[in-house]
Amino acid sequence: MGYAYYTLPDGREAGYGVEATCDAPDCSTEIDRGLAYLCGENPLGDEYGCTGYFCDKHLFMGGPSQLCEPCLDRWDADARAEATS
Predict the structure, then answer these.
(1) How far is the C-alpha of 46 from the C-alpha of 53, rounded, in Å?
(2) Pair 58, 68: CB distance under 8 Å
(3) Residue 81 DSSP SS3
(4) What does the pLDDT look like over 1-51, one tens digit per residue?
(5) How far apart are CA 26 and CA 15, in angstroms?
(6) Where are the beta strands (DSSP E) in 1-85?
(7) CB of 63 within 8 A of CB of 72?
């Protein structure tokens, strides 16, 4: 499977050849829907990623992969809870 263009099961077009804007509220930064902008590791979903696509301002390296702020906060809360149990 190539990653320039594909369609996700929910009907969204994705891939580094698909122009888009950041999924963060009130952000109009132009990005593509390639893996470099994906929250999480898998465009079909994974344990912590929300499968949104975000610009560099709204996507953070941390946890198991690159995550948006709400997903990173959720991962961090889970990691802290696990550390104290």
Answers:
(1) 14
(2) yes
(3) helix
(4) 578 999 999 999 999 999 999 999 999 999 999 999 999 999 999 999 999
(5) 23
(6) 6-7, 13-21, 30-33, 59-62, 65-68
(7) yes
